[in-house]
Write a structure and sequence with these properties.
The chain is an all-alpha fold. The chain has seven helices and no strands. The longest helix is centred in the first third of the chain and has 25 residues. About 20% of the residues are buried. It folds into two domains: about 25 residues; about 100 residues, no CATH class.
């Protein structure tokens, strides 16, 4: 530094730099608007002119239909000889427990019968597991008739809350 006590004014930017900065900001804003405009879901012109009532899906009914179809599939496999009685009861138990889990959030697939009783779940589930599925899956000897287990599974699915 020199020994002079002069003050130098700050360097001034030229007008072209300010215009360039404004131009870059405008380009960024236009690109953001373009991204938003192109990624929004499109509305049809007919729907925009005539607003319709929203359609509601009964999730419980759809879930019941899905699980009743699974039970029917298990029954068909048993009747055609692709599953034995023990495997049929095991699959019915898994299906019913999965239904209860999806429908109510109770972690039935990983809970033992005593845990389900302690939680106070519906009696139809406890009876199906305790009187049909447990004896048929874990007991030595011949399992119970799968028709009883199929009827119990249908009762749980159709009567659950």
């Amino acid at each position: 530094m020199s020994g002079a006590d002069e003050l130098y004014p700050p360097a001034q930017y030229g007008a072209q730099w300010i215009l360039l900065a404004i131009g870059v900001l405008l380009l960024v804003a236009a690109a953001a608007w373009l991204v938003v405009a192109l990624t929004r879901p499109r509305r049809s012109l007919a729907a925009a002119g005539h607003p319709s009532a929203p359609t509601f899906v009964d999730v419980a009914a759809v879930l019941r239909e899905e699980y009743l179809a699974q039970i029917a599939g298990i029954e068909d496999d048993y009747r055609s000889g692709h599953r034995d009685a023990r495997r049929t009861h095991l699959d019915l138990s898994r299906t019913v427990r999965s239904f209860v889990n999806e429908y109510s959030g109770v972690e039935a697939p990983v809970l033992a019968l005593d845990d389900l009783v302690r939680l106070g779940v519906r009696p139809a589930l406890i009876e199906a597991i305790g009187r049909t599925y447990y004896p048929s899956v874990f007991r030595r000897g011949t399992p119970l008739d799968p028709a009883v287990g199929i009827a119990a599974a249908r009762q749980v699915v159709t009567t659950w809350y």
